[in-house]
Design a protein that fits this description.
Shape: elongated
Number of helices: 11
Bound molecules: zinc ion
Distance between the termini: 16 Å
Structural class: alpha/beta
Number of strands: 9
Order of helices and strands: HEHHHHHEHEEEHEHEHEEH
Length: about 240
């Protein structure tokens, strides 16, 4: 039996699936992964991305922060891929209960997923740091220099920057969904970076599936491990 057939069998048997996705889900839509070999790390900037996307950098060098942010993280024109779309179908059928994602590009929502738990926030929601007024993605990406509210305050993306804590409510929902599901599909993440790795430990269900191009530290405990591109697998599922 091929790997995708094994995954199909697991999905057919499952009633409560949670999908936990990392950067690999988005890279197939053309979004760059910060940590992959051909990701942003290898590009020429004065600082590495984890410095430029830190709260300290945002506070001390907002102009450079927004230059980098607008240059690299604009989701305009990027479309959901076969993996995003398959997850919408599973949710519509009542099998998939939640998508837990580390991605900030809004592609799951754009595809039509409803219960998306955004661990690292989203570029689609932005708030004035002074008055709290909400702004959309392009209010920031199309701004010149530092995006400013009509009140003069800086508009800050609802993206969890390095050094910032994750949202407790979102984390709580993710942990609850994972601890209650019968099947957890972990995809497109090497599970190296904390806290991604932590979430797998809350899984109590029956089928743990890992789909990633390279090995992960949890491969040994998973029922099904697939080292392949996500598109290759999800395009074959019914
Ligand atoms: Zn304001």
């Amino acid at each position: 039996m091929e790997n995708y057939e094994k995954l199909q069998k697991i999905i057919d048997e499952s009633k409560n699936i949670v999908f936990f996705g990392g950067a690999g889900v988005s890279t197939e839509s053309g979004i760059k992964d910060f940590r992959s070999v051909d990701g942003l790390y290898n590009e020429k900037y004065d600082y590495p991305p984890e410095v430029m996307l830190s709260r300290t950098f945002f506070d001390n060098h907002p102009e450079e922060f927004f230059k980098f942010y607008k240059d690299k993280l604009n989701p305009e024109g990027v479309e959901p891929n076969v993996t995003h779309k398959y997850l919408v179908k599973l949710e519509d059928e009542g099998k998939l209960k939640a998508v837990v994602t580390q991605n900030i590009d809004g592609l799951h929502e754009k595809a039509g997923s409803k219960n998306v738990l955004l661990l690292h926030g989203t570029t689609y929601i932005n708030h004035c740091m002074n008055c709290g007024k909400e702004y959309g993605a392009q209010d920031v990406f199309n701004s010149k220099g530092i995006p400013r509210c009509s009140c003069g305050g800086i508009i800050k993306p609802d993206v969890v920057l390095y050094e910032e804590p994750l949202n407790d409510i979102t984390v709580g929902k993710a942990v609850k969904a994972i601890s209650e599901c019968d099947t957890l599909i972990v995809a497109g993440t090497s599970l190296v970076v904390y806290p991604a790795a932590m979430y797998v430990r809350y899984f109590n269900g029956k089928h743990l599936v890992i789909i990633n191009r390279s090995e992960t530290q949890y491969d040994d405990i998973a029922e099904l491990v697939i080292h392949d591109s996500l598109g290759n697998i999800f395009s074959k599922l019914k």
